[in-house]
C-alpha cells in the first residue's frame, strides 16, 4: 500500500509539472524589461517570450506581436523552443506509459512485474522531460543574466527574469521529483531458493519381524 501511495503521489507531481511546462512555454513573460536605471520613466512594461513579444500599457491594455519569421530568430531561442516542445511531448508519452503501470489501473493486471516496469519507464520519461525543460529555462535565464550585467548593453534594453522562467523551473523540478517517485516502484529481485526436500518418513513399526 505504501508503494502504491508513493506511485500515485509521483504521478500527480509529474502530471502537475507537465502542465506547468506547457503553461511556461505558452507564456510571453520569459523576460521583462528592467527599469533599474535612475532616470528611466516609462508608461509601459515590455515582455518577451518564445513565441511573441508583448507591451502592457499603464492602463492595463496588453498588445502582443507574434514573431514574424522562424528563420530570423536567434539560434538560442530556437533551441529553447525545441527543448520545451520536446519536454511537452516527452511528458505526454510518459503520462500514458505511467498510467498503464499504475497499480490503481486494471490494465496488465495479469503480469504485475511488467506493470510495475511500465510505471518505472514512465517515471524515467518524466525525468528526461523535466531535465529538458530545466536545461531550456536555465539556458535562457543565463543569457538574460549575462546580457543584464554586460556593460555594453544599453540601460533601456536590459531585461530581467520573467514569471515564465520561475514557473518553468518549478514545473521541471516537479516533473523530475515525480518521475523519481515513480521509479521507486521498481520491482525488487527476489532470490529464489530450491524447495526444501523432505526426508522420507520411516514406516511405523508393526512389531513384526520379516525374514
From TrEMBL:
Asked if the Swiss-Prot or TrEMBL record annotates the protein with the keyword Membrane, the reply is yes
Report how it sits in the membrane. Multi-pass membrane protein
| Principal subcellular localisation of the protein | other
A GO molecular function held by the record? structural molecule activity
Tell me where the transmembrane regions lie.
7-27, 79-99, 119-141, 161-184
Superkingdom, taxonomy of origin: Eukaryota
Q: Which Pfam families match?
A: PMP22_Claudin (PF00822)
Against InterPro entries, the record matches this protein to: Claudin, Claudin1, Claudin_CS, PMP22/EMP/MP20/Claudin
Keywords of this protein's UniProt record, alphabetized?
Cell junction, Cell membrane, Membrane, Tight junction, Transmembrane, Transmembrane helix
The record's section on Gene3D superfamilies has: 1.20.140.150
List where in the cell it is found.
Cell junction, Tight junction; Cell membrane
Protein's UniProt keywords contain Cell membrane: yes
Any one GO cellular component localisation term in the record: plasma membrane
Q: Which family does it belong to?
A: Belongs to the claudin family.
What the protein does comes down to: Claudins function as major constituents of the tight junction complexes that regulate the permeability of epithelia.
Could you tell me what this protein is called?
Claudin
Which species is the source of this protein? Neodrepanis coruscans
Originating gene: Cldn1
Amino acid at each position: 500500500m505504501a508503494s502504491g501511495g508513493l506511485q500515485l503521489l509521483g504521478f500527480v507531481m509529474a502530471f502537475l509539472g507537465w502542465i506547468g511546462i506547457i503553461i511556461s512555454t505558452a507564456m510571453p513573460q520569459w523576460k521583462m524589461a528592467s527599469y533599474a536605471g535612475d532616470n528611466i520613466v516609462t508608461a509601459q512594461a515590455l515582455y518577451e517570450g518564445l513565441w511573441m513579444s508583448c507591451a502592457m500599457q499603464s492602463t492595463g491594455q496588453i498588445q502582443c506581436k507574434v514573431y514574424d519569421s522562424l528563420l530570423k530568430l536567434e539560434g538560442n531561442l530556437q533551441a529553447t523552443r525545441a527543448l520545451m516542445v520536446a519536454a511537452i511531448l516527452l511528458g505526454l508519452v510518459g503520462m500514458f506509459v505511467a498510467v498503464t503501470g499504475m497499480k490503481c489501473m486494471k490494465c496488465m493486471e495479469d503480469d504485475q512485474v511488467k506493470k510495475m516496469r511500465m510505471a518505472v519507464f514512465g517515471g524515467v520519461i518524466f525525468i528526461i522531460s523535466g531535465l529538458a525543460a530545466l536545461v531550456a529555462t536555465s539556458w535562457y535565464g543565463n543569457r538574460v543574466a549575462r546580457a543584464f550585467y554586460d556593460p555594453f548593453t544599453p540601460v533601456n534594453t536590459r531585461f530581467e527574469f520573467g514569471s515564465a522562467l520561475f514557473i518553468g523551473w518549478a514545473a521541471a523540478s516537479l516533473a523530475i521529483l515525480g518521475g523519481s517517485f515513480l521509479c521507486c516502484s521498481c520491482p525488487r529481485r527476489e532470490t529464489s531458493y530450491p524447495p526444501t526436500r523432505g526426508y522420507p518418513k520411516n514406516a511405523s513399526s508393526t512389531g513384526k519381524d520379516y525374514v
